[in-house]
Amino acid sequence: MPEVRAFLAIDLDDDLKPKINKIIREFKGTEANIKYVDLANLHFTLKFFGDIDVDGIDLLSQRISDVAARFESFNIKIRGCGAFPNTSHIKVIWVGLEEDETLRNLHDQLDAEFKKLGFEKDKKFSSHLTIGRMKSAKNKNKVKSAIDSFADVEIGEMKVERIILKKSTLKASGPIYDDINVFEL
Is 128 one of the catalytic residues? Predict the structure, then answer.
């Protein structure tokens, strides 16, 4: 049975991308070995599904639609910068969100529905924008300093009006994301 690599996301507003790009340029100045996320691909992940049967997309979409119908659009504040798992062992560089009760409720209600379909519940929800992945420890201290300097950076606010089920096709040049379904809030 054919499969697609899928995830549920909130796309970053285009008008905030120049601010993120400015941060990325600062990290590029460290000359560290970092693979940066293309600005067109910046998103907040609500759920990563992995490889799923294409036959299950309609059922998954129906569950997402049911939950999305319970929510109205809401604002999120994008701020801060950090690393996973931490700044001593940097794998992923991210820009974060202020804690938002509506976003958490949306995630938790979606996750409960996904569990009914056999997906594992998320251990800890931490929505963020991945802006880069460290490929080696080269200039790690410079990267750590850059992360520290952006720890409280204010990116801005955006209105979340839709969530998007996306397909990810992995290529040597980087992932290609295509929208499978869009769900208005």
Answer: yes
